[in-house]
Specification:
heterodimer, A: mainly alpha, B: mainly alpha, 12 helices, about 75% helix, globular
Chain lengths: ~270, ~260
């Protein structure tokens, strides 16, 4: 698919999403307030009641920064709520239309997913600008122009990885009547094991080592650590390489599932 | 009343027979909810690796609090959730016509028609987790405290449904309530944490304007600290007011509803 068509599909999706502007602003305001309230309340209580100054390698402002950043980057990585579109295309027969197009279906869907990210990106930047000054200075984390520059490609690849991880559960729609629960399961697991709920450094040592071997860490924790300036250049390069490798592995795994499913697919009309 | 009970029995029979038609989805959903329970329990278990108390509660107390929340979530998923999902679709497609012309309360019919049989199994699992967390509690909880807790938990389920309805009903005017619902589910996270971690003013807001803490956090306080008449009256009073408000809002919504079908 040529880049201009990719961008055209992406912008169409953005325009569609922006048709509901009240939804857009309500979601942003409530998400920001709720997350800040919970983060602040939870971690001030834990630091006060434990009597510790550093927990899992973080001081209080540092862990608050992590909480806000993982929330903001996570929104971009998850890219809105297009998780069920592939399954819906299969169930409703809209897939027939895409099969006739001289374009790769998975890439077309990724272009749509990418377009869905743009409003989230805008919201995340805006929320970041409001939240970061409220957090205070940390001795364990620091957002710098270089860390932001390093975070941009990291988040883009994390977004691709998240999209690819969501494909196989959705392709199960060729066989199963409803796969919504599979997508939700993936979300639960990736949020916990990827560090979206808690920094992975809070897990027991043995669990941390195991979690580093899984792809989930590259979805949420790795981009957040990059943006907080906690990843050195060499580790950043190897982390990016690992993330790309996971993209290749999961993308390759999805191809035979698509081919088998495609053979089973029957659609009426276009 | 008997007529409504008979009608609900029909809803249950229909929902169970339909759930067994889609067996793969049936099991997927059970696994999904179990995974949710595991994630919630791991979250607090990891937190308690770094502190002995959270909001004044120790690990054993938080386990009961979280299990209570899981039961309320399971009740909601079983009894109300599917119906909440369908409501905006009915309003936008004009299918609401079929429900408002029936000789029963439209709110009753639309809130309870679809019973999620698969989530019912999860409700049993969540109740099992709650029983386990109560049985492993090292101190005596007292039968009176426990009865009040169970009663207030049932009340919490009803309050949770009422709150979600308040976020659903604007669909009569807005035609899409995706933003409001996302906001509601986001705000739900406030009820998943012990109440004492919040500052005084946040607690006040969460006990009155958006009474999330009345769903499970305050019932858990009643279990651990004993039945305080002031807290119980507050919980029941706010639930009653919220329900009346929701019913009035529902009737207002119905008056604004213009059918889209013939």
């Amino acid at each position: 698919m040529n880049p201009s068509l990719f961008l055209h599909i992406a912008f169409l999706e953005t325009k569609k999403l922006m048709s509901y502007r009240i939804d857009f602003w309500i979601t942003m305001a409530v998400n920001l307030v709720v997350n800040l309230v919970i983060l602040w309340a939870l971690w001030t209580a834990i630091f006060a009641e434990s009597g510790e100054d550093i927990i899992g390698g973080w001081d209080l402002p540092g862990i608050l920064s992590y909480g806000v950043m993982v929330f903001l980057t996570g929104r971009i990585v998850r890219g809105g709520d297009l998780q069920m579109t592939v399954a819906t295309d299969i169930y409703e027969g809209a897939l027939s239309r895409f099969l006739l197009y001289p374009r790769n279906y998975a890439i077309t869907k990724y272009a749509q997913q990418f377009g869905n990210v743009l409003p989230d990106l805008f919201q995340s930047v805006l929320m970041g600008l409001i939240a970061i000054p409220l957090l205070g200075l940390s001795t364990t984390a620091a957002v710098t122009p270089i860390s932001i520059l390093m975070a941009i490609p990291t988040i883009i690849i994390a977004h691709l990885l998240f999209y690819l991880m969501g494909l196989i559960p959705q392709y199960v729609a060729f066989w199963a009547d409803n796969v919504w629960s599979l997508s939700v399961m993936l979300r639960f697991v990736s949020m916990l094991l990827g560090g979206a709920m808690l920094p992975l450094s809070l897990f027991p040592e043995s669990a941390q080592q195991f979690l580093q071997l899984l792809p989930f860490v590259y979805l949420f924790e790795f981009p957040t650590m990059v943006i907080l300036g906690k990843v050195e250049t060499a580790n950043w390069i190897s982390g990016m390489a690992n993330c790309l490798l996971w993209c290749l592995i999961i993308g390759a795994l999805s191809i035979p599932v698509w081919r088998r499913g495609d053979l089973r697919y029957t659609g009426v009309g276009i | 009343m008997l007529r409504y009970l008979k009608l609900y029995r029909q809803f249950l029979m229909f929902s169970f027979s339909r759930a067994f038609e889609y067996r793969m989805d049936f099991w997927f959903r059970i696994v999904m909810d179990c995974l949710f329970y595991v994630v919630e329990l791991i979250f607090f278990t990891v937190l308690y690796q770094h502190t002995d108390l959270l909001g004044g509660w120790n690990y054993d107390q938080v386990l009961i609090f979280v299990s209570g929340y899981l039961v309320i979530d399971a009740i909601h998923m079983t009894v109300f959730s599917n119906n909440m999902w369908w409501l905006p679709i009915y309003v936008n497609k004009g299918d609401l016509d079929y429900y408002i012309v029936r000789p029963v309360s439209s709110l009753f019919f639309l809130s309870l028609r679809d019973f999620a049989a698969n989530s019912f199994l999860n409700l049993l699992i969540a109740l099992g987790i709650l029983t386990w967390s109560i049985l492993r509690y090292p101190a005596e909880l007292g039968a009176v405290n426990l009865l009040w807790f169970l009663f207030l938990m049932a009340n919490g389920s009803f309050l949770f449904y009422t709150l979600q309805m308040l976020f659903q009903i604007p669909v009569f005017w807005t035609h899409t309530n995706r933003g409001l619902l996302t906001a509601f589910f986001s705000a739900n996270k406030l009820m998943e944490r012990p109440d004492k971690i919040y500052s005084k003013w946040t607690r006040r807001v969460l006990m009155t304007i958006f009474p999330a803490l009345l769903v499970i956090a305050l019932p858990a306080r009643v279990l651990f600290d004993g039945p305080d008449p002031l807290i119980i009256t507050h919980i029941l009073g706010i639930t009653g007011v919220t329900f009346l408000l929701m019913r009035a809002f529902w009737n207002l919504g119905l008056r604004s509803y213009s059918s889209a079908s013939s």
